[in-house]
């Protein structure tokens, strides 16, 4: 083994450890390596594979999504009353990351199993929010809200941070692809274009509130637990999370938008600092493993 190969392996392993610590991921990549030839729900030519492979965009989009989702009082009540999210934020992010990875890069059986597991959990979650309104976690409207916020947040973060943003047609394709997962989770008649998704989201505006609970969620996310060495990077990720939110959401939260110059500086810094992580993931991350699974089956066909 050459010195170059040894150093590369050490670097890959060190970066991988940092990624797992930041995200709270505990998933085994071995689960994504089989069965050979299985393309899963989307396949390697999908826009979902491309978007979800961008680690920093998924971090930014994921945190942005959690903040915006908390503005819906009934959706927040379901999380507040029935999960340990407020005390184990990293574990929650890890579970969400696993679900996205399983449904995007897993074989078909793995993807559908992850969806059934979530549906089974949602079926037992119900209660009353602070305004006395009943909620049921598998209610189509709430699932629709969570889905719309998540996919638009991921897409907005990708468009903001990717060196080569998607074309308008590819953005629509991403929304259409992700609607398949949303429908399997119980949402009904999801929009299939980016423009329609934005219109649907705005339709929720009069139901949202930046109340005391939502403010506490924001404080928890802003105090995201990472090692001291990672705190500056996480602070920039959180700035980006606000930068990709719709203007009307920022207004609702009383959050002034960053100036254009600040947004550019933050974006460039996050893009540049994330390059070593993306280098590692491109070689041995979940997308790389899944691609080998698909190609492996093709070679033996």
Tell me what portion of residues adopts beta-strand conformation. Answer: under 5%
Q: What gap, in angstroms, lies between the N and C termini?
A: 33 Å
Shape: globular
Q: What is the number of helices?
A: 15
Rounded to the nearest angstrom, the radius of gyration is 19 Å
Overall pLDDT score = 88
- The portion of residues assigned to helices is 55-70%
Unreliable spans are: 10-14
The order of strands across the largest sheet is 1-2
List the helices and strands and how they pair.
Layout: H1 3-23, H2 47-52, H3 55-69, H4 73-82, H5 89-105, H6 108-122, E1 126-128, E2 134-136, H7 140-161, H8 168-184, H9 194-202, H10 212-222, H11 231-243, H12 247-253, H13 260-273, H14 275-284, H15 286-299
Antiparallel strand pairs: 1-2
In words, what does this structure look like?
Residues 10-14 have low confidence and may be disordered. The protein has 15 helices and 2 strands. It has 301 residues and is mainly alpha-helical. Helix content is 67%, strand content 2%. The protein has one domain (40-292).
